[in-house]
Amino acid sequence: MYQPLMDLTAEQKDILSGKEGETKAKMMEVLVRYGDVFGAKRLVPLTYKKGHLVTSFGISMLKPVFPLMDELIAAGLKAPEGFTADPRPMDFQNVKANLLEKLVFTKFMYSKQKSYEEQLTKLGLSSKDGFSCTCYLPEVGNTPKAGDTLSWAESSAVVFANSVLGAKCNRNSGILELFGTILGYAPEFGFLTEKGRKATWKVVLKTTKKPEAQILGSAIGMKVMDEVPYVIGLDAYLKPLPDEDTIAYLKDFGAATASNGAVGLYHIDGITPEAKEKGPSLLVDEPKEYVIDDAEIERVYRSYPIMWKSRDAKAHKCFIGCPHLTFKQLNDWTDKIVAGLKESGRKKLRIYTVLTTAPAVAAKFKLTPKYQELMATGAHLSSICPLMYADNPVAGARPLMTNSNKLRTYTFSRYYKDAEVLSIITGKGSK
Amino acid sequence: MKQFKGRVIFGGTFKGDAVVTHGGFNTLASFQKSALSSSCKDVIVSDQNNPDLFKVHITGKALCLPMTIGSTTGGMVIQTIASRGLSPAAWLFSEDIDPLAASGIILAHVWNNVPIIAIDRLGKEFLRTVKTGGEIEIKEDGTIVVL
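^ Those are the sequences you sent over. The predicted structure of the assembly is below.
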């Protein structure tokens, strides 16, 4: 048996020694070894027990995952309070695919999707519509509160939970988050400790206007990597939480910090809960400093490589909503698209455009008149994961455009600012 | 010949080629193409954003890196690669190992019984010294000899 470095309770020792079965013992060993590597003194109980899984996709390449899930199911294990999961990789109804793409998706890339979803259901998937990266939105309802300890892995959800909600979660790997959720424990290190939540970077914003959330997040992520930034000056452009625009901005900003770097927690002076409570005392002594002005934002934007085969190609598809759009963002995009088409004199969008949002948000939106307005523009509404759609040799080889820095980072999709996206898809400003 | 000493996470001995990245090793981007191929016998790094390792063969070698970066599926990807016998034989970190790499290597050991050497805290000088294609020796106590 593994001899832990950390202190375990009697119950935890029993699990590790196999008194509750071999499978649970292995799960505990993984969790304890993980904590030991990072100097955790103990495993702490999760105070927020609902999980969220980063793996929503039955991608055939992850071969060991499927027997591992079967082993957990055979051992009778289940997440006690259930879990949500990241978005599904396919939605042929709302995101069109040709025969070859369908073949690649269903028979090759995601051939395990159906059986994997059956496994997820047995392990505690909370709903057949529980697939969104924005599980923390009120419509989805998987929302921890300040101070809660949880076991999640999806990077954009972890950084939102830590930073905007004030919850405590490390930037875990897939599978480890499920083990923690089922066992009900997390090793106490990193963001679960006061020291780990201190900011080692002071970021001073000196732009003359509100920077694009996705570019500001990208700039900070690439600079600080996995460290914690404390951002000063952004509060001039944001209303206090829980303003919906601020929530949407921080969601997109955080996802960019997490994907362009490896940020798991940020503090925004005057805005995020810990920064409001503790202010600059969250900074370590002698932090590193990064000043961001208009020129720096533009430099970062211009630095993104364009991976399209032809720079002048017309986009095959446009994805708006990675991470998934909030209800407010969906309404705002609808208004902008309708106004943009009016300005350009067109009735339909020039580019096959998909707006992505959580199933629960989509359901709410479909009850409003705006849904018909959006559909009339030729836009499509889906709860797909654009990243999983684009991250393959067939769909990903086409020129895709997006306003998501996460999608840009992991695929060949080309990033545009929001206003540029709007101009391109509506033909606004073009002759 | 130069020696470095790190912290042993999973020990073992090794003598063979090093492969070196000076930037973060993007696990998913690096392994994705090889992992998608069911007939793959030797991983060729597919991360076009990594100038040090793009198109370099890394299976069975000593991967020298500062840390892993990228998707939080990273741990599962390492477990997958390891379970298929495609992993580097050793993961040698100049910095502290990161949570995603640690997860994958631990999963490979505990769930799949695949022994992978993992040593961290080798220092920046280690990465400045070791070269792709150069021979290194790893000792059980975490000593790395750059030959």
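The first helix of chain A runs from residue 10 to 17. Residues 327 and 361 of chain A are 6 Å apart (CA to CA).

Shout if you want it in another format.
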